[in-house]
Amino acid sequence: MPIALFASLTAHPAHRADLEQALRQMVADSRLEPGNLRYDLFVRGADATTFDLFELYVDEAAVAAHRASVHYQAFRQQIGDWLAAPVDVRSSQALDLAPF
After folding, report:
1. What is the per-residue pLDDT across 61-78, written as a single tens digit (0 to 9) for each?
2. Are residues 54 and 40 in contact, defined by beta-carbon separation less than 8 angstroms?
3. The overall pTM is greater than 0.85
4. Are 22 and 78 contacting, i.e. CB atoms less than 8 angstroms apart?
5. Got the DSSP string for the chain?
6. Banded model confidence at residue 90, pLDDT cuts 50, 70, 90
């Protein structure tokens, strides 16, 4: 059963553009992972400092592989000082997904 992750990241205003750029690269890299089904980026308003990610993986092993990936580890190292709040991540098991 697929696993969904919902992550929210809030940047310090001075690092909003930096965080967006890093997130866009993370999206591109993560979509190439074999266990990734979706990796979508949203922003809460055009100039907002909070970004949301919707991630969908084939299973828990794919989530673990994502978190162990070189690009994920580098991303987490890079953004630490840019955040205004801790990253909020929620995990859910899919019950009823539209076909993709």
Report:
1. 999 999 999 999 999 999
2. yes
3. yes
4. yes
5. --EEEEEEEEB-GGGHHHHHHHHHHHHHHHTTSTTEEEEEEEESSTT-SEEEEEEEESSHHHHHHHHHSHHHHHHHHHHGGGBSS--EEEEEE-SSPPP-
6. very high
